[in-house]
TrEMBL record:
DNA repair among keywords: no
Record-stated family: Belongs to the class-II aminoacyl-tRNA synthetase family. Phe-tRNA synthetase alpha subunit type 2 subfamily.
SUPFAM superfamilies with a match to the protein in the record: Class II aaRS and biotin synthetases (SSF55681), Winged helix' DNA-binding domain (SSF46785)
Organism per entry: Haladaptatus pallidirubidus
Protein name: Phenylalanine--tRNA ligase alpha subunit
Cofactor note: Binds 2 magnesium ions per tetramer.
Length: 502
């Protein structure tokens, strides 16, 4: 009997022992596991091998699980601190117990949310009561973590469920196949099996020489287990940016586009930002050294902007009465906001004069010389937008934000009056972080001042905003440090696993 070479090796390997796994067979036969799997299925079809399948579950500790296996579960730490500090009443002020436990950051919340559930006592009006009869030595979760850490199995499914829902263990299932030689297989081996040459790939030579007629082709095995491959994918920030674009297009907006490095004229001067404004100094600004300035500023607009800065734009308006220097306005820097694009568009310099009503947006990078921390990077994506129409009011602005954020499941936006040199009134926007429950700033907005609009030649109202894409992402996915998604400290698992829902 002639079978492909790999099948001969697998048959011989299978005759060594009953019920071998594919891995054992592969080792014995000196073949790759995927080749072995293919051969096994072929031989099973021929009736020479029998294959039994079972699902094996393996449980492993996550990083956090390992940490608690080593240092103790936060709720036990808290219990022990509360017990030690509680005196005869077994009751102690919460801050003191937490202080003594040495817990910090998110672990405090973890400890508090598991404390009562596991019968360590109660938390009431800022006091922690420790039940003297609780028994941390018999904590099923702690003991399961310890067992897993030392490589022992844990059978208690309820405890495993609990640990899994706390993100402390991961359960994975794998199909294990055990292979045994059938009676026909034994006979075939006794009668002698020979290796036939199999060919994995058809070549042009085989076709021209006609050799293809004489060879045996290997078959595709579509049920073979394949290795998990983490290929490249679109970053969640990009995915979310694309979704934001879709949402805004759905709300009737058109996209703006323009230079990342631009003249201060577009970034600041058009926005009625005085030339001695603190944000315009080198502390916040990334200047360009080559080229240092822009040549083609629209002359007429430069003159109107200069006048607005000096004297304001009419009876009810006043300018800064300080020198306005065109050279200074020509200097190039990385844009600190994409409001520079709004200026280019509103001035008619990007796509020609615009008649109201109009709606435009961009979702683009901006650059700021900030100090890096969990909520600040040197660059971020700004969701810029504006609506030009007659008789706009703050209600239109708020309604637009509510409609926009609702599409991302965010429904409790809060507004706080604010100051911008270029809008009046102005509002900062806040949203509640799903994990820390804190209000975080998510954007800035307002109605452009006449001192901005008149030089641009806009005769109706314009409401506008700049929202931070990264902050939107924080509200959507609950991560607390922007560096989890950006840069060398990023959380690769998070980036691999999070899918943006469209
Ligand atoms: N440029 C502002 C910022 O970067 C956002 C903004 C745009 C505010 C337009 C009002 C109007 O914070």
């Amino acid at each position: 009997m002639k079978v492909p070479e790999s099948q001969v090796a697998v048959l011989k390997a299978a005759s060594a022992n009953d019920a071998q796994t594919i891995e054992e067979l592969a080792e014995e036969a000196g073949l790759k596991p995927e080749t072995t799997t293919g051969a096994v299925f072929e031989l099973e079809d021929e009736g020479l091998l029998s294959v039994e399948e079972r699902i094996d579950e393996s449980v492993s500790l996550t990083g956090e699980g390992k940490e608690y296996a080593e240092n103790g579960l936060p709720e036990i730490e808290l219990y022990e601190a509360a017990l030690a500090a509680g005196g005869d009443e077994n009751s102690v002020e919460m801050g003191r117990a937490i202080g003594q436990s040495g817990l910090g950051g998110p672990q405090v919340n973890i400890a508090l949310s598991n404390y009562a559930r596991k019968g360590y006592g109660s938390i009431d009006g800022g006091e922690i009561v420790a039940d003297p009869d609780a028994d941390p030595e018999n904590d099923a979760e702690a003991n399961a973590l310890a067992a897993l850490a030392s490589g022992k199995p844990v059978e208690d499914a309820d405890t495993l469920d609990q640990l899994e829902s706390r993100g402390l263990v991961e359960r994975t299932e794998a199909t294990v196949r055990s292979v045994t030689l059938t009676d026909d297989g034994v006979t075939a081996l006794m009668e002698g099996v020979e290796a036939a040459e199999t060919v994995g790939q058809l070549t042009p030579e085989m076709l021209t020489t006609g050799e293809w007629r004489d060879v045996e082709f290997a078959e595709y095995n579509v049920s073979a287990d394949a290795e998990r491959i983490d290929g490249g994918k679109v970053h969640i920030l990009r995915q979310t940016a694309n979704r934001v674009k879709d949402v805004l297009v759905g709300m009737g907006f058109e996209e703006m586009d323009g230079p990342h490095a631009d003249a201060d004229f577009w970034i600041n001067d058009c926005l009625f930002m005085p030339q001695d404004h603190p944000a315009r100094t080198h502390w916040d600004r990334f200047a360009l050294s080559n080229p240092t300035e822009i040549d083609d500023l629209p002359e007429e607009l430069v003159e109107k902007v200069r006048r607005a800065h000096l004297d304001g734009i009419g009876e009810d308006s006043d300018g800064y009465h300080s020198p306005w220097d065109e050279e200074f306005a020509r200097a190039i820097a990385l844009r600190g906001h994409t409001t520079s694009l709004s200026m280019r568009y509103l001035s008619g310099n990007a796509v020609g004069e615009l008649e109201p009503p109009q709606r435009f947006f961009s979702v683009e990078k901006v650059y700021r010389n900030d100090t890096l921390d969990p909520t600040h990077l040197l660059e971020f994506f700004q969701i810029e937008g504006w609506v030009m129409a007659e008789d706009l009011s703050v209600r239109d602005l708020m309604g637009t934000f509510e409609e926009f954020y609702e599409q991302f499941g965010i429904t409790d936006i809060q507004f706080k009056p604010h100051y911008n040199p270029y809008t009046e009134p102005s509002f900062e926007l806040f949203g509640r972080h799903p994990e820390t429950n804190e209000l975080i700033e998510i954007g800035n907005s307002g109605m452009f001042r006449p001192e901005v609009l008149e030089p641009l030649g806009v005769e109706c109202d314009v409401m506008a905003w700049g929202l931070a894409l990264e902050r939107l992402l924080m509200l959507m996915y609950g991560f607390e440090d922007i560096r989890d998604v950006h840069g060398t400290l990023c959380d690769l698992e998070l980036l691999r696993d999070v899918e943006v829902i469209h």
